[in-house]
Amino acid sequence: MRLTVLGCSGSGPGPDSPGSGYLLHAGDARLVLDLGNGALGALQRELDPFDLDAVLLSHLHADHCADMASLVVYRRYHPHPPYEPREHRLPVHAPENAPDRLAAAYAVSAEELTETHLSDVLDFHPLADGGRAEIAGCAVTAAKVDHPCDAYAVRVQHGGRSLVYSGDTGPSPGLVSLARDADVFLCEASWPHVTPSWDEPPPGVHLSGRQAGEHASAAGARRLLITHVPAWFDGEELAQEARSAYDGPVELVAPGATYEI
After folding, report:
1. Backbone phi, then psi, for 25, in 5-degree steps?
2. CATH fold of 2-260, please?
3. What pLDDT is stored for residue 210 in this prediction?
4. Which of 53, 63, 88, 171 is surrounded by the fewest CB atoms within 10 Å?
């Protein structure tokens, strides 16, 4: 498997990175994990979006799904599509309310919302805690995590290798279980463990750098990739926090970077 970072800025795009988005090549499969603000543009540098096999959305905050509206436009209105998009709808595995949430982002007015749907070009499949699916030849497992909205981490396995993506979460035993012995653990770290505002991070929102390291250590993950750092924090500081709690290799991801799994 090969992971390419389309965007990794937390809470919104930053000056050097789109919001969250990751392209995963797994054998012949091409999956996108999240498609936040600006990630569709970065995706087009890697492949034609018509070549995607599926999209997985960890949750429906804008920095993880905003570019789905633009992807719908791309598939509906491209003048020279390689196939008829309505006959080959793109599978989207996402929280249950994704059809309504993404339609609301696409609609131009409240009056139009009742008539707006995306199911002509997207094929929605709800994520569930412990849910398993085969997606384009990959085994995918979801686990509910602790965030202010319905949110999931996902584990993708192919060819004897595994990637676990945390999405957004506070401390979560379910995330540790999902990441058990993962080859690569792509984990958010959105703030320092101690700040002028707190001695312990608020629960149920995000992980600190130290907490990301603690989760990787508890899971026995073989490699930790730190992501989702907001523009106002120092990513290297958060990666160093993770190293204080985890003995394996730790790397801060960068937009455009590629990682072999």
Report:
1. -95, 125
2. Metallo-beta-lactamase; Chain A (3.60.15)
3. 98
4. 88
